[in-house]
Backbone:
């Protein structure tokens, strides 16, 4: 079957779409292995010319839309347009349909919605479509037809991640990305044991309750095999970025991974680290794997927002200690911060600015808060207090938060975001005058021979 895949996702930090996504990449490999002909385009907003060109090039028999919760409007307009031009079955999947399947099923032309991890759902569903007499119901795929709505249970989780093939990369424009950045992105597992109130992880975990182990990791050898395959294809790989937030939370697995990584790869490594889980022992292990940069979720300078609203169980003191330890070890840091979170105020934004000045991160990724559907914070306090903004998605794309509170108007948040971006570096590279304040860290790395 010829399938046109639409990745409907926000264009963050000027990054081109389609953008590598490990879960979607694995699905694409599985579909290609079954003989489907795949065409992938990325959209952050409705783009008639782009869609028309893709239809002409691909001549699809089916459309699969992978929809982000911050691009539902873009998906709706695109699917509406498709409906006016072609009579094509449309299947939706990804983060939005997983947390709001009934809403996703009411998008124009959508006849089926895949919930959760797509390997065991969509692959089977697309195979069934080849056979008109096969029963259409597949676990995890909601259907709407003349008979009404079918909502089968989810299948069990895939526990042995090594049994899955390596993710497709070329359709995502991997060559151009590596040419530009040299950074190979890879996922080493699925699921996360943390319960941050702003994250959809919790909702998805609840869907899979009783259907297998939620936090799963690939074997280190399997991860390094994939890195080797990509490096063989692309001589431009200069560093590796681990995408998982739970990467460094299991000491036994981490020790094994870092040893194998040091032996078989050794390229500069970037990963997510939880500030209250950065112990001296873990840092030692990570440095064996040539750790160069850590992404740390700071989220807010307000203890109240971080812990009472988002349940991160993380104090300002722990964050400060973590940044000091990372910098002392010669590791560059990227602090991730939200402005416009529930109960944000001018005072809490000042707290965030003060904390960042104290932390001195190498760079800051500051984003407007968006209440992702299905997250705890989106329901309570945002929905319960009537703070959800009707134009939330458009606000998000305009760098403003998706909620509106009387004490903290979006314009105030937008000004706060501009202020942080003006004071801190947002890029790992850039003009020389912006990189000057990284000089002591670079010097330390050179002295340590890294
Ligand atoms: S650590 Fe990351 S992935 Fe895990 S719950 Fe928090 S935000 Fe979500």
Residues:
């Amino acid at each position: 079957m010829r399938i046109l895949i639409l990745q409907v996702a926000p264009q963050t930090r000027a990054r081109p779409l389609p953008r590598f996504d490990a879960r979607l990449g694995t699905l694409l490999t599985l579909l290609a292995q079954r003989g489907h002909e795949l065409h992938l385009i990325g959209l952050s907003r409705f783009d008639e010319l782009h869609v028309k060109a893709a239809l002409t090039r691909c001549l699809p028999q089916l459309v699969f839309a992978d929809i982000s919760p911050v691009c539902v409007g873009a998906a709706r307009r695109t699917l509406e347009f498709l409906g006016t031009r072609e009579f094509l079955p449309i299947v939706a999947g990804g983060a939005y349909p997983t947390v709001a399947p009934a809403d996703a099923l009411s998008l124009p032309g959508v006849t089926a919605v895949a919930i959760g991890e797509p390997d065991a759902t969509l692959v089977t569903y697309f195979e069934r479509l080849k056979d008109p007499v096969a029963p259409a119901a597949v676990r995890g795929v909601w259907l709407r037809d003349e008979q009404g709505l079918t909502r089968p249970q989810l299948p069990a989780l895939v526990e042995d991640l090594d049994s899955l093939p390596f993710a497709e990369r070329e359709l995502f424009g991997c060559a151009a990305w590596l040419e530009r950045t040299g950074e190979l992105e890879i996922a080493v597992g699925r699921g996360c044991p943390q319960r941050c109130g702003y994250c959809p992880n919790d909702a998805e975990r609840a869907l899979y309750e009783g259907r297998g182990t939620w936090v799963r990791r690939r074997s280190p050898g399997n991860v390094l095999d994939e890195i080797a395959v990509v490096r063989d294809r692309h001589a431009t790989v200069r560093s590796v970025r681990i995408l998982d937030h739970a990467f460094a939370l299991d000491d036994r697995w981490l020790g094994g991974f870092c040893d194998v990584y040091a032996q078989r790869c050794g390229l500069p490594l970037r990963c997510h680290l939880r500030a209250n889980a950065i112990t001296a022992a873990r840092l030692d292990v990570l440095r064996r794997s040539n750790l160069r940069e850590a992404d740390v979720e700071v989220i807010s300078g307000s203890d109240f927002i971080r812990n009472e609203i988002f349940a991160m169980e993380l104090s300002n003191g722990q964050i400060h200690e973590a940044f000091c330890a990372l910098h002392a070890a010669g590791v560059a840091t990227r602090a991730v911060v939200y402005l416009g979170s529930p109960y944000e105020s001018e005072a809490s934004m000042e707290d965030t600015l003060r904390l960042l000045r104290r932390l001195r991160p190498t760079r800051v990724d500051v984003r407007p808060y968006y209440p992702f559907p299905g997250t705890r914070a989106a329901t309570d306090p945002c929905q319960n207090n009537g703070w959800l903004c009707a134009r939330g998605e458009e606000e998000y794309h305009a760098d403003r938060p998706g909620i509106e509170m009387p004490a903290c108007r979006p314009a105030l948040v937008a000004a706060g975001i501009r202020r942080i971006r003006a004071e801190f570096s947002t890029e790992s590279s850039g003009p020389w005058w912006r990189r000057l304040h990284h000089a002591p860290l670079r010097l330390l790395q050179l002295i340590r021979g890294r």
Remarks:
- The chain has two domains: 2-150, 173-445.
- Residues 192, 194-196, 199, 201, 245 surround iron/sulfur cluster (CB under 6 Å).
- The two ends are 49 Å apart (CA to CA).
